[in-house]
Design a protein that fits this description.
The chain has 11 helices and 14 strands.
């Protein structure tokens, strides 16, 4: 088997369904498998998987074991030569895995490969390529110096632009592909970290093995990002713990530095927490259906009736418009490309997954997202 896709889920039932649908499409020409691990979700994620995807391996944990252990459990069951660690709040294109698994991208020195990530509005997510957060690099991030010049741009690996592939130090755990042999050799994710710095630590340990990590820009994946985590006091505490974990594990630091970094981590954590607070959602002024279906009018009528919204057949510049992209007639790849090409501060997007009774999307990288369920 060539590829095992590992999806760790926690309370994002509808995003998980859409993710699995996209992965199934992306594996049609690949000898691969999907393994879903559920960290004791309180929603009906497991029931949905059993009903809609009975042939996909589902591991239902009895408690929330965290990101590292949850993924490690999934990888223990993997049979592929390669494994892909994938967040449930993602959407992959039909050719994502075919492109990344192309033998030309892999050599004896290759560690992890990641790809371009965009948020739910089509905007690039810079954290999909990063540098090692050394004390100095972390300082430039905390103080916002990376915005002033590429000289301070190591945190977001600004030596590469978003449309340029190349070596980077750190890749994000929302999407990373590596050989199962390498994952096993380095011991997978460190289970002493509950979440948040686990991908940094894994990427760094791959570098310590003498391997090189790569950012691959030729395929794009949607990562709704804010959906996986509620930014609250618990989040802030765990983020602080995660950063402390990484520094204590990999850097020998002075007492002065430890105090300074503690202040910086607290500040950075507060910023992240408030960035992620869910804002009151304003209703769009216009809804517009993007579809190539011959039943376009029926789709509009169903959405208008069950969601109590009104669609238009004209787009007015300057008016906030929400585009609903029909994935029954559009490929995932085409939908992703459409979002990238048409991103605009006045545009928001929701996807209508194939053969599903909901639309979903998010309005920013910090937005937890919105799911609207309608009657069949």
């Amino acid at each position: 088997m060539q590829l095992s896709v590992i999806i760790l889920n926690y309370n994002v039932r509808y995003f998980l369904e859409q993710c699995v649908l996209s992965v199934q499409k992306a594996l049609e020409d690949i000898d691969g498998e999907i393994i879903v691990i559920d960290n004791n979700s309180s929603d009906d994620s497991c029931a949905m998987m059993q009903q809609k995807f009975p042939n996909i391996k589902l591991i239902a944990n009895k408690e929330n074991l965290g990101f590292p252990k949850g993924n490690n459990i999934g990888v223990e069951h993997a049979k592929g030569e390669f494994v892909c660690i994938l967040n449930p709040d993602t959407v992959v294109a039909e050719d994502t895995f075919l492109k990344i698994l192309n033998p030309k991208n892999w050599s004896a020195n290759t560690g992890i490969i990641g790809c371009k990530l965009i948020d739910g509005t089509g905007n690039f997510l810079p954290e999909c390529k990063r540098g090692v957060p050394t004390p100095w690099v972390a300082l430039t991030k905390i103080l916002g110096l990376y915005k002033l010049s590429n000289s301070f741009g190591k945190y977001y690996a600004q030596h590469l632009n978003q449309n340029e592939s190349g070596k980077v130090d750190i890749l994000v755990g929302a999407f990373m592909v590596l050989k199962l042999e390498l994952y096993t050799k380095i011991g997978g994710f460190d289970e002493n970290c509950f979440m948040y710095s686990d991908d940094i630590d894994l990427s760094y340990r791959v570098l310590q093995e003498g391997k090189s990590n790569y950012y691959f820009h030729e395929t794009t994946v949607i990562h709704y990002k804010g959906e996986s985590t509620v930014r609250d006091k618990t989040y802030m505490n765990r983020f602080q713990e995660a950063m402390n974990f990484f520094y204590k594990k990999h850097f020998k630091v002075s007492v002065f530095f430890s105090i300074f970094m503690k202040i910086g981590i607290v500040f950075f954590s507060f910023v992240k927490m408030f960035q992620g607070k869910v804002k009151d959602k304003e209703n769009p002024e216009k809804y517009f259906l993007i579809s190539e279906s011959s039943n376009k009018l029926e789709i509009i009528n169903k959405l208008e009736k069950t969601l109590n919204i009104k669609f238009t057949d004209t787009i007015v510049n300057g008016k906030r418009t929400e585009f609903v992209i029909d994935l029954n007639s559009f490929s995932f790849k085409k939908a992703i490309q459409w979002m990238e090409d048409n991103k605009n501060k006045n545009h928001t997007y929701k996807l209508l997954p194939p053969n599903s009774n909901f639309i979903l999307g998010s309005n920013s990288s910090n937005d937890r997202g919105e799911v609207l369920v309608f009657k069949e």
